[in-house]
Structures are given as structure tokens and as C-alpha cells.
Design goal:
This protein is of the alpha+beta class. 31% of the residues lie in helices and 25% in strands. The chain is built from eleven helices and 18 strands. Helix 8 runs antiparallel to helix 9. The N and C termini lie far apart (66 Å).
């Protein structure tokens, strides 16, 4: 298969491994790296934290009929909004895939804040001139109480007592608290946090349960939860009270003004807040070797009304499907995340090209490269939420419906955007099947049945 001048990805994995400093996957790999002392300290900090919170019961011989859950060390380097390494982190994770439903766990769902909610809260903070702080709970999952008896294999790095003379595999540890990796851990943590906040008068939002609100005569405070990260938004006095109340029960890090959350970079300016993903965009361009490409001013070329000349038409019989060496689906996934978070300007073009993920051709790949070249020239573009007073209503929605905008399959394109303070907080571009007339006809026929029965 000959592919013009596009990338050669036959040895993509080797290239990536050679150019990117990937995270170690085991303790043995950590020992072979020059930064082993930092990983060693991170491992010890994790073990000390587990012991401090009483996660483990004493080591015992594994009870008969019990199959202990395995474990794995997960290593990561936390980065700031500039993609710089902030700290080394080691996490002991249970291998929850061996848990049995209805025996080792019941419910697993836990609500988290989505990007739309977060953007609205940013807009609210700017328009009302509220404080916005980010708090990080240290090892949040360890605060959750388990709802089942679970044993885990003895982790590497944890020493056995001299009285335990049998093989290490004969022993295990019963968990007192939830551990990362267990299927119910996230739910146990959320339940613990929610109960603690409700006890103080906070109220769960019925639409978005991960947002809790407390009002008083002096102001209000909003706590938006995303796993172990909490964004506190509200009047200064109430935000300070919330911080002090949370610190009474949980070990927390006060990260100050929210500058990075959910993959979004947040810049605070005197006239508003800019939300963008410049670092992520640069990583996309570098990952797919487009960081030195010439920039373009539009995210896609103009489409033709002639179905035979449309550059975004489906694969034709004389065209070849791109091979697995071309990461078409990988680029689509990377761009979809960008389009859903801070770049509504590429939402339509990415949605259009995503339709051909199962059978992409060279034409479609050229469309992908066109978007990447557009991003090359608009890396710093984002959403700016201004604090200037606006005469328009607080929340405005725009919607449009393109009749048969996809002539190849007789489908229509639906798009909408909601703005708050003249800046977008929610948007979507979606291709819809043309079923509306059929549904209308179906309802009409159903309504005629009583008439048919009357007149025979």
C-alpha cells in the first residue's frame, strides 16, 4: 500500500517509546531509571499513608475458600499547566477485575463533574466576581468504608513479621478501608464525602449530584467534585469556611486559584478568565508529527454540492482503505476530546471525519491533516469569559438544523450552542438520521385508529 507523503507509522510504537519518557510499569523498571530515588520516596510515602489511615488489618494466613485480590504499583508524574513535572506519585492499586459481583461489591456508580458544568461554574465565578479555589484530597479513596470482606495479597515493600515462617503466598491482608482499584472504591469515597457535607447543611444538586451548595446570610459556597479534586466557588467568607470544614475531616492540599482542572488550562486576567488547552494541542501536534507544519486559517475545505466532487464523500470502489499504520482513529479520538472541551470551532469538521473511521481513505486523512494545520496556527485559542457587564440574557441557546446536509446518506446535521455571558459553555454538532417524517406519520396513523374503528 502506497501512501503519498503522509506519516510512516509502521514502527510508531518504537518511535514513541524512543522520543517520549513513558512512566515505569513496575518497581523493577523504577530501579533501572536515573530518578529511582524519587520513585523510592514516592513508594514509601504511599505505604506510610496506608498505614496512617489504618487501611490494612494485621497480616493473617489466608482463610480457607478466600481468594485474595491481587495488586499493582502504578507510577505517575503529576504535571502542572505548563506540562512540567510537579511531583512523583506511586499508588498501590488493587486488581479489582477479580472481584465477584453481588459477593465482593454491589453498587459502583459515582457521579463526577463534567466539562459543561465546569465551564458554567467558571462563567458564574467571573460574572459574579466569586472566589475560585482548587483543593486536592490526599489519597481520597482510603476514606471510604468497605461494604464487603476483601483480602489482598501482601504488597511488595511491606515486610512480614519474623513469626510468619510460611511462604509469603500463604498470607494476605484484610482491608479495613477501600483501596484504589476496587470496583466500589469511588462510590465509597463519594458516599463518605457526601454524608459529611450534608451533615453540615450542604445540599446536593438534583440535576448534578456531584455539585453541593450551601447558602447562608453572608453568601454561598459551591463544591464541585471530580473524584479527589474539589473546586470551591463562592463568596470569600463561605469559601474559607468550607475549606476549614473539609480540612477537619480530610487531609487536603490547598492549590490556590484553579489553574488546571479536567485537562483545562485556566488563566486568570483582570478582565476575565481564559480557558484553553494549549499544552494538550501541542502534544497532539507533536504526537502526529505536525508540530512543524504550515498553519491554515480554516478547519476544513469548502464542501461541494455535487456528491461526486465532495471531498468528504464516502469511500468509492476504486479507492483503498488506509492501513493500520495510519492512526486515523487515534487522531479522531484526540481531536474529539479537544472539540468537546475548549474548541467548538472544530466540532463540525471532527464530527464529519469521525463518520469514516471504519473505512478512511486518503481524502479523509487529508481532512485530518487540514484540521491539524489549523490547530498549528490557533494553538492558544480558547474560551474567554469576560467580567464586563452584558446587556444580553445570562443564558442563550442557538440551534440549527441542516436539511439533508449529508446528501450521501440522506441525513441531516443538527447543531446547537449555549452561551453564558456571551461565551460558549455547551455545544454539539451531530449527524441525525432522517426519521422525523416517519415518526410523524407513525403518530398520525395511531391517532386515526379510533376514527377507523368508528367508521368501520
Amino acid at each position: 500500500m502506497v501512501i503519498d507523503d503522509i506519516f510512516s507509522f509502521a514502527v510508531a510504537a518504537e518511535i514513541i517509546k524512543g522520543h517520549e519518557d513513558i512512566e515505569p510499569r513496575s518497581v523493577d523498571e523504577c530501579k533501572e531509571r536515573p530518578d529511582w530515588p524519587k520513585w523510592k520516596d514516592a513508594i514509601q510515602v504511599e505505604l506510610n499513608s496506608l498505614e496512617k489511615r489504618g487501611v490494612f488489618e494485621p497480616v493473617v494466613q489466608t482463610p480457607q475458600g478466600v481468594k485474595p485480590v491481587g495488586y499493582k504499583w502504578v507510577f505517575t508524574r503529576k504535571r502542572n499547566e505548563k506540562n512540567e513535572i510537579a511531583r512523583y506519585k506511586a499508588r498501590l492499586v488493587a486488581q479489582g477485575f477479580s472481584q465477584r459481583p453481588r459477593i465482593d461489591y454491589e453498587e459502583t456508580y459515582s457521579p463526577v463533574m463534567d466539562a459543561i458544568t465546569f465551564r458554567y461554574l467558571i462563567s458564574l465565578a467571573v460574572s459574579e466576581k466569586l472566589d475560585m479555589r482548587l483543593m486536592d484530597v490526599v489519597i481520597a479513596y482510603l476514606y471510604g468504608e468497605l461494604d464487603a470482606n476483601i483480602y489482598i495479597k501482601i504488597p511488595k515493600g511491606l515486610k512480614l513479621a519474623e513469626s510468619n515462617t510460611k511462604s509469603r503466598n500463604m498470607y494476605s491482608i484484610k482491608l479495613r478501608r477501600s483501596l484504589y482499584g476496587l470496583k466500589q472504591s469511588r462510590r465509597m469515597w463519594y458516599n463518605r464525602l457526601s454524608e459529611y457535607l450534608i451533615k453540615e447543611g450542604y445540599i446536593n444538586n438534583p440535576i448534578c449530584p456531584c455539585v453541593v451548595i450551601k447558602k447562608s446570610n453572608f453568601g454561598f459556597a459551591i463544591v464541585a467534585v471530580y473524584v479527589d479534586d474539589m473546586n470551591l466557588i463562592g463568596t470569600p467568607e463561605e469559601v474559607i469556611k468550607t475549606v476549614e470544614y473539609l480540612k477537619c475531616e480530610f487531609e487536603m492540599k490547598d492549590l490556590g486559584k484553579t489553574k488546571y482542572c479536567l485537562g483545562l488550562e485556566i488563566e486568570h486576567h483582570p478582565n476575565g478568565i481564559l480557558v484553553h488547552q494549549s499544552a494538550y494541542t501541542e502534544k497532539i501536534l507533536k504526537r502526529f508529527y505536525m508540530d512543524n507544519a504550515h498553519s491554515l486559517s480554516t478547519p476544513m475545505v469548502v464542501r461541494s454540492l455535487d456528491t461526486n466532487k465532495d471531498p468528504f464523500r464516502p469511500k468509492e470502489d476504486d479507492e483503498m482503505i488506509l492501513g493500520p499504520e495510519v492512526p486515523y482513529l487515534s487522531v479522531i479520538c484526540a481531536l474529539l476530546y479537544l472539540a468537546q472541551c475548549t474548541r467548538p470551532d472544530i466540532a463540525f469538521s471532527v464530527n464529519l471525519l469521525a463518520r469514516y473511521s471504519s473505512a478512511p481513505t486518503r481524502r479523509h486523512w487529508n481532512g485530518i491533516k487540514h484540521i491539524l494545520r489549523y490547530l498549528r496556527g490557533t494553538t492558544d485559542m480558547g474560551l474567554f469569559y469576560s467580567n464586563k457587564p452584558s446587556n444580553s440574557p445570562n443564558l442563550i441557546g442557538y440551534a440549527d438544523f441542516g436539511y439533508l446536509s449529508d446528501p450521501h446518506k440522506g441525513r441531516s446535521q443538527t447543531g446547537y450552542v449555549f452561551t453564558c455571558g456571551n461565551t460558549a459553555i455547551s455545544w454539539r454538532s451531530k449527524n441525525k438520521p432522517w426519521l422525523l417524517p416517519l415518526l410523524i406519520m407513525q403518530k398520525f396513523l395511531r391517532s386515526m385508529r379510533p376514527v377507523e374503528n368508528v367508521f368501520g
